[in-house]
Amino acid sequence: MLSMSTNNLSYSDQGGTDSAVEVGQETTPTSSNAGAGFGLFSVDFKKNEDLKEMLESNKESLKLEAMKRVVGLIAKGKNASELFPAVVKNVASKNIELKKLVYVYLVRYAEEQQDLALLSISTFQRALKDPNQLIRASALRVLSSIRVPIIVPIMMLAIKEAASDMSPYVRKTSAHAIQKLYSLDQDQKELLIEVIEKLLKDKSTLVAGSVVMAFEEVCPDRIDLIHKNYRKLCNLLVDVEEWGQVVIISMLTRYARTQFTSPWKEDGVFDEHNERAFYESDEEKTRDETEAKPYMMDPDHRLLLRNTKPLLQSRNTAVVMSVAQLYWHLAPKNEVSIVTKSLVRLLRSHREVQYIVLQNIATMSIQRKGMFEPYMKSFYVRSTDATHIKSLKLEILTSLANEANISTILREFQTYVKSQDKQFAAGTIQAIGRCATNISEVTDTCLNGLVLLLSNRDETVVAESVVVIRKLLQIQPTQHSDIIKHMAKLFDNITVPMARASILWLMGEYCERVPKIAPDVLRKMAKSFTSEEDIVKLQTVNLAAKLYLTNSKQTKLLTQYILNLGKYDQNYDIRDRTRFIRQLIVPNDKNGALSKYAHRILLAPKPAPVLESAYKDRDRYQLGTLSHTINTKASGYLELSDWPAVAPDQSVRNVEVIEPTVKSKPAKSSDDKFYSDSGEEEEKGSGSSSSEDGSSSSSSEGNSSQTSEESDKSSSQSEKSSSESDSEKKERKTKTPLQKKTVKPTAKDWYHTIMEHIFNEESWTYVTKQQHTKTIFVNVINQHSVLQTFSYSHWSTLCVSLFTQLCPLSLAFPLQLSGPAFVPEKSHDLLHRMTGKGLSAQYQFPRQPCLYQPTMVSVQISLTNTTDHPLEQIHIGDRSPTGLNIHCFNTIECLEPEASVTVFMGIDFNDSTQAANFQLCTKEDHFSVSIQPAIGELLLPITMTELDFRKEQGKLLGMNESSATITMAAENMTSQPISRPVATVANLGMVPSSQDNVHRFAGKTANSGAVVLVTVELRGESTALITINTEKSVMGSMLLRDLKLALAQA
């Protein structure tokens, strides 16, 4: 046995006890223990030797099989660290699948085997340049897992390069590596902040959550880094992965508390029972009308609340809880209740989730009872609930109790008292006591019910009832002397120390009301004093002292006897208390002065205890945090700051700097022209502060500074922000040219007009023309409002012709656009004639490039006057979200009865299906409308060869690829029917294919220009494989869902 234990110990040092047991079961018994021990080692040695031989063989298939087995061991929790040298040799393998598995292994063991991992640093650095994004990301992950300070500069350089990688997955990995490097060397903080600042500007939803987490770890106090990215993060929030949503919401909650003023000031009274404020509100309003400043919510504050509200429907409980805490800490009081239903829905989850959610509800219900009162039945205790869940539900029901529902709650509590769970039954009795304290109308009822429980067979129930009754009697003791007498009669039958001590305290506190019973109770306690618990002995001493002061004739000898017993007790607390009481109540020469105050000290009136919820003070911690759960400040907890008295300057969140005047600009160098952005000039004129305008197009779009002042004004008229005053709107409308009934020019005439604007100066250089193209588009369209009323055929001809001619002049379109393969004729209702008081509006997507701005999606709107009177001044009003970039149509001064007009808008949806909300206004009315784009309408068709298609597809694998196998309808199995449903769902161009069973389609997103590749491969008789490659992974999955539905239907 000794040798066997030694062998096992040695094996534990090498490979792990679990592995030893498993291998030991596979061995055959030998003649001796020693032989068995060596047999054990030999089998394990051969087993690992097999894997090493496979990893060192020349066959890729053997290496791949060995790595699969090794990764399988890791997944089962087995120790495979001794294979590190054999595995690390394959890090330079050309087999992609093998290399992925090697990196999975290295990420797990690089921190443990740092010396061996350092030998492969050069290989990891080379892998950072690998064409495959997964390899680049894995190499960075391994590199950041080597916790050796000597390679910090190498890690820093790798993180900087990865932050600029074309793949969002690699950029996401670099954000994860930032946290690892910061924990290794905090001196790199400033350099890491620069990388974080760069990644915060990233528009990819894949990166957003990770970089915000890095921000929270490295520099949570650098709020200035969030200003410019605030609106972008709010708009991207819906499309970010769930883990990232939780992190971003938590960060934005802290940000909002520092940047916006409190919405609770004039929103109503937080204390629902403050009747004075309720009844005096009207009077105060009239009295201080000149002094009061009504609260106006910051548009960015409203943007955050609006964009997080849809996440209450998330399937992830952490996301729902994050949104709930955000509304609790940031929303006006009358809007907080929208989170109630979502929180109650979470109570159907696992008990771990229930526990956290109930804790937060318990905190919320103390201050806002009305939120959860309609869902009171959801908090009724079930027999299958765990004890801690029952206690929390009990806490919530107690907080929700009021005069209206107390009878229902007390009936429920009657059932709970009979529970077999003793701890829960005791908690129910305490809850009854709290209800009796909080609601004076039921105090007597609760007290009588508790007295009836004194005859219960369960000692725990009786003991808890005594304790609660003692607290209730302190509220109005004069009316309940009979209860004290009843409890004295039950004293001999009660054995729980706390209950006995409570009865003794009551006897001593109200001994004058039961002068005959109290001495008799003291006599009984004198007999059993030595066998009682310490807490009972202390209360016996107190009772003796109080009776000595009030009824010394009957109790003098008993008191001296008890004091003598306590003087020699084993517990020093009892000995000290006894000596103190003796000196206090028995006068002598030394302590005569103190004994004068004995009556005032021992029989002083005591305030009634306040029965409060254990969750009353937990609101000092942010809801949903670990600190709130454990009721203690946890490491890393960031406190919410108080609302600022005066809101900081909101212009810090504006992406573009607004210049109030247009000055004549001197000639600029070519460098200034190249790096300027015509989009910025448009934003300056419009006052728009969309955070989605990034720098991705800054080098490709030209400078519009050379346009005339008249053109600038005309361009800005259609992009005015919603903050304009009415006078400004009227002034703007008078400058807008009226629509005249003239002969409409053809698309060819407009084409020549635009081309003349572009080429009318022979002295322009090629670069200048290239920069000036977009400005000419906007100016000509704005100057000639008749163009917006073109028929669809004219519009289509003009768009395709212009973009075909001007593509060589613009760097904004590296991929050549093509005309739409199919334009759906289906129109969507924008405004019904009943809702619009006679104004009817429908919209459709013409699937043409938007001339106003390349990142916008063109929308065709048909307006119809169904009334019997003209409608005047039809225009676009306020819009939301705040950062939404819309190019509005010019104001329609008059629309005759039964007349229709077609206009065009440009909307930058930012590659998201989030609806564009705005107001369609007439002279007298404002109607809120919404345009919801399908995912396929956010794309533009492009042309490319099959070879180019394959090259682009090779760059978009792994995380950027989505695929599904479907059963197609029989009618869709030929070439023509396949292209039709695909083109119906998405605005994609067809790519020539050399294979009859493979159909390819290509497009790009309107906002970011990200390539979207769709492949439909026919397999068998009725099945097909749909593959979508795009770096916009969320868009890819949504497009895949729509294509599956379209191709599966006949």
Summarize the main sheet.
6 strands, antiparallel
**Measured on Cα atoms, how large is the radius of gyration?**
39 Å
Question: Whole-number average pLDDT?
Answer: 76
Helix content: 40-55%
Question: How would you sum up this structure in a few lines?
Answer:
The protein is α+β, with helices and mostly antiparallel strands.
Describe this structure in words.
- There is one protein chain.
- By secondary structure, the protein is an alpha+beta fold.
- It contains 47 helices and 15 strands.
- Strands 10, 11, 12, 13, 14 and 15 form a six-stranded antiparallel β-sheet that branches. Strands 1-2-3-7-5 form a five-stranded antiparallel β-sheet, with no helix packed on it.
- A hairpin with a 6-residue loop joins strand 12 and strand 13 (998-1005).
- Helix 9 packs parallel to helix 11 and helix 40 packs across helix 43.
- Residues 1-45, 267-281, 283-292, 657-744, 754-798 and 800-813 have low confidence and may be disordered.
- Belongs to the adaptor complexes large subunit family.
- Its main location: membrane.
- Pfam families: Adaptin_N, AP3B1_C, AP3B1_C_2.
Chain-wise SSE layout:
Blueprint lengths: L1 H13 L2 H10 L6 H23 L4 H16 L8 H5 L7 H14 L4 H5 L2 H7 L5 H13 L6 H12 L4 H17 L4 H12 L4 H14 L5 H4 L2 H7 L5 H18 L15 H5 L1 H7 L11 H10 L8 H14 L9 H6 L5 H17 L1 H4 L14 H14 L5 H12 L4 H17 L4 H11 L5 H15 L7 H9 L7 H13 L7 H11 L6 H17 L1 H16 L4 H14 L6 H4 L2 H5 L23 H5 L39 H6 L2 H9 L22 H9 L8 H10 L11 H13 L6 H18 L8 H15 L21 E4 L7 E6 L12 E9 L5 E10 L4 E3 L4 E4 L4 E9 L7 E6 L4 E6 L7 E3 L4 H10 L5 E7 L7 H11 L3 E3 L6 E8 L5 E9 L3 E7 L3 H16 L2
Family: Belongs to the adaptor complexes large subunit family.
GO biological process, one term: vesicle-mediated transport
Main location: membrane
